[in-house]
Amino acid sequence: MLFNSFNYLVFLVSVWVVFWFVLKDKTKWQQLFLLLVSCYFYMFFIPKYILILGLTIAVDYWAGIALERQESERKRKVILWVSVVVTCAILFVFKYYNFFSENIRVLSEYFGGEWSIGILSWALPIGLSFHTFQSLSYVFEVYYKRQAAERNFLTYSLYVMYFPQLVAGPIERPGNLLQQLNKPFSFDATLASDGLRMILWGLFKKVVIADSCAMIVNTTYLNIEGASTLDLWYAAILFSIQIYGDFSGYSDIARGSSQLMGIRLISNFQFPYFSKSITEFWSRWHTSLSSWFRDYVYIPLGGNRVSAWKQSRNILIVFVLSGFWHGAQWTFIVWGLVNAGFILLEKSMSWSKRAQSAVLIPLTFLITTCIWVFFRAENMNQAWAQLHRMLFDFHGGSQIVVDKKLWLMIVFFFVLEWIQRSRVHGLDVQHWRPTYRYSAYVLVYFLVFFMAVYPANQFIYFQF
Amino acid sequence: MKGFLHKLLFFGAFAFITHVIAGYHMNGNTDTNYLRFTPSNNTGMILGNSRAAQAISPDDLKAHLGLFNAAFALNTSPYGEVYHRYIKKQLNEEARDQVFVFCVDPWSLSSPFDPQTGREGMVEESKFLATTTTIADPNWEFMIEQYAYGWGNIIREHYRPTSGMFLHSNGWLEVNREYDATRAEKRRANKLKGYKAEVFVSNRPSDYRKKELRKMLQEMKGYGKVMMVRLPVHPDFFEMEQAFWPSFESEMNEIAAQEGITFWSPKELNEQLTFNDGHHMNYKSSHRFSGLLNEKIAALKAM
Q1: How confident is residue B57, by pLDDT bands cut at 50, 70 and 90?
Q2: Are A193 and B151 within 8 A, CB to CB?
């Protein structure tokens, strides 16, 4: 069930009505209801994969309680490792096995052998990386004694399965979500109103901006060899806009849906394309993942409190892992490495502090655009070929037909986000005068009404 | 909660009303399939893929008025259970003097086969023809499930159409493209290249589709006269199709003979008609071809 579908609208409205009108003040029933509808939501994709999710939940639920009960540090470590290994093994089998298998085969061929461990043809469970990391964050928090183990299996299951964030995040922490799930649900009209604004704005980002860009980007990527330098730049820039509109739009709808249930989810994006450096970009882009790696990888490795070269090593490790988290392909690993390279470069230079925003923001956007090439490319050859042609090998014969309406929408999108950059989201306008506020709602509604495209493609981050 | 509900209901009603207004603007300009999912009150049907959808104008078939062009596209309406179910929904079950024109070509009777498992792929099973269950006017199910744009676009396309295609209420898809030999030649070359690289390689003649075709022929015979037609295509396309399925004509003749129906394959028209892309007739040729088909239908009715 996609967030931008009619099915989801019916689903959300039905859930909301039952949650607040039928089950009002019955916390346990509300929890159970949310869990059941979350299962239903997940089973819309590949029903049998709910068993995999069930296994992850059961193992980490057990691990949490066992960690809390156990006093021996050695045994606690064993429990932690059992939980991490089992949870990651599921992720490995479904997401990474074929990558390793293929690379073993290639390596064996290189050395003249014919060794192969076979290929699995199983579909990747939707959002597997997201709920794996969310579940792991609970185990880590309990291990570090920052979170009490959840005794109620229903509440813990809901923490992992809560439908707004189940398939593409934000990757929640128990300190935020689990605590809210443990309290009686109370309706907050301000929160719910903001939730509706987020849904509307998220929908605009997804169906007007991202999906319109996607049509041009996909066409160019179908024929990379025949595209001119200008075409490739155009597609790369539009992909930067597409992926932001797609993922932040998804996140806004997820957070907005959750706020209708009275639950706040953490913010995932803070206007990342207004960053003045790649380092800043990563403190604003997909922050629920960045902070996960910071807290559970970077800091345990020593973080900033180690020598300069170890700090660099830590940054490299985090970004390679982050790239690999996105997908089992070399393109994602290189994407992570290149990001790390720029961050290390920025650390060693001080130019970013002196230059002006007017220079740094567009420059950062252009660098990010080039780095996204690895993210979008089918393979490394395609990525290198595209970058080479974009940067060093000019090819004429551009076939660009500028879609004025799309660019008008993009300009509107970024101008409104710029005006709102100190707020929570682009349509966070409750402080505006009512006339302006309602005009803004109607305007954005009509932009969606007239300009939306609903192709069959999913949200980009669903594949992770 | 009360204040929030009032606002929610106000905006909900506003969104609902604007969508309903838009829905009532659906017509042949706004979507190239929608009208085929509204009741057709037909006296027979034309079946096939996009070649048939563009080639046969029911208004030109004076020998039997009221025919409905129920042809879709290669990936949507190859002969099979999905298409059969749809045809049954549009079928006029009262009349027994109807006419059914089955357009056949190697692609509408073939399927992609998995090279590893040898399993036949049913490309149409995930398409709108399989998933849309109702025939209604207005057809909200079709609009909700299939319309791929914001519904405001329906109003815009209704008053200022931009697609250059118009689906008549009788099912004929008129593509308003003036024939330009140079551009048509370029499109033909690209299309032929695409076919050779894709369907020619992935598809194989399908026993399942032939069986389904025969089932449909037999069923429709109960409602009137039935004929099969192989539509003209550019000679290069014809040559590729012959290479793909050399015995196609003889197999169709055999089916026609066994079912006691006519099979018309006017190969001589391949050179005479013009095609927008090598296999979809230009609308002017469509009228000419429909005129010739009209004579065949007249003869069929006289039999």
Answers
A1: very high
A2: no
Active site residue A425: no
Residues in A closer than 8 angstroms to B15, CB to CB, are: 445
Angle at which helix A153-161 crosses helix A27-43, to 10 degrees, equals: 40
Considering the domain boundaries, does residue B126 fall inside one?
Answer: yes
Predicted ipTM of the assembly: 0.84
CB-based contacts of A386-389 (< 8 A; 24+ apart in sequence): A386/A224, A386/A232, A386/A236, A389/A227, A389/A229, A389/A232
pLDDT at A456 over 70: no
Could you tell me how far CA A422 lies from the centroid of its own chain? 21
Question: What band does A126 get if pLDDT is binned at 50, 70 and 90?
Answer: confident
pTM for the model stands at 0.88
Among candidates A161, A158, A160, which has minimal Cα distance to A139?
A160
B4/A193 Cβ within 8 A? yes
How far apart CA A209 and CA A417 sit, in angstroms, is 13
Decide: helix, strand or coil at residue B205: strand
- pLDDT of res. A353: 59
**Cβ–Cβ contact A21 with B under 8 A:** no
Tens of pLDDT along B128-152? 999 999 999 999 999 999 999 999 9
Give pLDDT, residue A354.
Answer: 60
How many residue pairs bridge chain A and chain B with CB atoms within 8 Å of each other? 46
Assigned domain for B34 exists: no
Give the model's pLDDT for residue B180.
Answer: 81
Residue ranges with strand state E in B37-193? 44-47, 68-69, 98-103, 110-112, 165-167, 173-175
Give the pair of three-digit tokens for residue A431. 């402080």
One-letter-per-residue 3-state SS of A335-372: HHHHHHHHHHHHHHCCHHHHCCHHHHHHHHHHHHHHHH
- Read off the pLDDT of each residue in B14-18 and give the average, rounded to a whole number: 96
Collect all residues of chain A within an 8 Å Cβ-Cβ radius of residue B144. 6
Give the start-to-end residue ranges of the domains of chain A: 6-184, 190-276+355-463
User: Residue B216's domain spans which residues?
Assistant: 40-302
Q: Does B251 reside within a domain?
A: yes
CA distance B252 to B265: 10
Domain annotation covers residue B236:
yes
Distance from CA of A165 to the nearest CA of B (A): 23
pLDDT in tens, A141-161: 999 999 999 999 999 999 999
Per-residue pLDDT, A120: 82
Total domain count for chain B?
A: 1
Residue A13: Cβ within 10 Å count: 13
CATH code for the domain in which residue B114 is found? 3.40.50.1110
Taking CA–CA distances from A212, the nearest residue in chain B reads: B149
- What does the DSSP 8-state code read for residue B228? E
CB of A361 closer than 8 Å to CB of A276: yes
Average pLDDT rounded to a whole number, residues A281-292: 95
pLDDT band at A348 (very low <50, low <70, confident <90, very high): confident
H or E stretch covering A94: none
Position A350 scores a pLDDT of: 66
Q: Does A20 touch chain B (CB under 8 A)?
A: yes
The span from the CA of A328 to the CA of A144, in Å, is 30
For chain A, the average pLDDT equals 92
- Of A406, A449, A451, A453, which to mutate for an interface test with B (greatest number of B Cβ within 10 Å)? A449
What span, in angstroms and rounded, lies between the C-alpha atoms of A12 and A203? 14
List the single residue in B with minimal CA-CA distance to A446.
B152
The catalytic residue among A131, A286, A326, A425 is A326
Q: Sheet holding B44-47: strands in order across?
A: B68-69, B44-47, B98-103, B224-229, B262-264
The C-alpha of A38 sits at a distance from chain B's nearest C-alpha, in angstroms, of 23
What is the arithmetic mean of pLDDT over B197-213? 94
